[in-house]
Amino acid sequence: MGIENYGGGQTAQADVLVVTTNDVPGHQVTQVIGEVFGLTVRSRHLGSQIGAGLKSMIGGELKGLTKTLVETRNQAMERLVEQARARGANAVLMMRFDVSEAADVGTEVCAYGTAAVISKL
User: In what order do the strands lie in the sheet containing 106-120?
Assistant: First the structure.
């Protein structure tokens, strides 16, 4: 698996900047729009469950599950950005992920933050 399977985040050309900080250096917040989130729930397929069970007996990274979680987080973040853009934001401040089990059938991933309009100083 290549490096693209283990991470995510935005490209340099993104029209909605997503940061985990309260502010953006060199910018001022001109409008706070409010909370936005992107949510997805994914189930694991039988093959990955069996493979994960076997791998857990001998140890090591569960690469199939890692790839699935990366894809899930990226999808939640894409939905977060879509929500922010639809509400007129050009930034999401204080972005965080929340991950939980969903009724024992899958994993719920929520990306959330504060939609805002920022401008250069």
Answer: 17-18, 91-102, 106-120, 27-42
